[in-house]
Amino acid sequence: MKTTGANSASGRPHPAVLIDFDDTAAAQNVAELLLNRFGNPDWKDVRQSFRDGYMDLKEYQEITFRNILADRATMQGYVKQNASLRPYFKEMWRYCQDRQVPLAVVSQGLDFYIEALLEKEGCGSVPVHAVNTRFDAQGINYEYRYTVPGKEELGNSKGVVVDSYRNQGHYIVYVGDGMSDFEAAARADLVFAHRVLADECERKEIPFRPFTDFGGVLQAVKELTGGLARNGVGPLTEHGDVEEAR
């Protein structure tokens, strides 16, 4: 992993927290939750073809969502009723807002369902770097804003998003769970991983911390920022955000 420069005023790294969405920020795989409810019955066969390497994630996602007849509002309502954020995500977001630490969702999923859950949980202002969608009479149209030049056909790259934050001088804290997160994890300074990403990091000898919820991520960011109080002035009080949440 690379190391970014420290904040010139404090001598500490200036972190940015970048978080995968399905099965990471969200406690569920929200895309699959929608496909189970609104998708064609054969969508799992398409998923298996993707897992077997016969198509990339962009193609898999577009195929499985292609025949959904439900509109944007219907699917967003279903997400709000049936999905939830992982514990301490909201505390993490509040801490980062108060200390001016960038936090964003970085996903190869679709913006409309990510935004629905964040809005439900009171985190609607969290920046989202995902596949942008537009609904019309023909279905869903997709826009990929974070592609690797010359490889646009592959869709969004999480590594491109990470690099944009690194180029601003941030120390990257990355949280994820899948193979699509690996290119981001390989560029990050501190990785929290579970599931497939944890296995891949171990195989490639990339250091990581096990991830279960955002309590550990919040504690790490507090350490990186030196436990600064709101707006970066002075020390934290004796009781931190995680302890208050408990």
The biggest sheet amounts to: 7 strands, mixed
CATH T-level fold name of the domain at 15-27 and 85-133 and 148-245? Rossmann fold
Rg (C-alpha, Å): 18 Å
Residues in helices, as a percent range: 40-55%
Q: Which CATH architecture of the domain at 15-27 and 85-133 and 148-245 would you pick?
A: 3-Layer(aba) Sandwich
What are the low-pLDDT stretches, counting only 5+ consecutive residues below 50?
228-246
Features:
246 residues; seven-stranded mixed sheet; 12 helices; 41% helix; Rossmann fold; disordered C terminus
Fold and architecture overview:
- The chain is α/β, with parallel strands linked by helices and 246 residues long.
- It has a domain at 15-27 and 85-133 and 148-245: HAD superfamily/HAD-like (Rossmann fold, 3-Layer(aba) Sandwich).
- Helix content is 41%, strand content 16%.
- The protein has twelve helices and seven strands.
- The chain has helices spanning 21-25, 30-38, 43-51, 57-66, 72-82, 89-98, 111-120, 158-166, 182-185, 195-203, 214-224, 241-245; strands at 15-19, 103-110, 128-136, 139-143, 171-176, 190-193, 209-210.
- Strands 4-3-2-1-5-6-7 form a seven-stranded mixed beta sheet, with helices on both faces.
- A hairpin with a 2-residue loop joins strand 3 and strand 4.
- Helix 2 (30-38) packs across helix 5, helix 3 runs antiparallel to helix 4 (57-66) and helix 6 packs parallel to helix 11 (214-224).
- The two termini are 33 Å apart.
- The model is unreliable at 228-246 (pLDDT under 50).
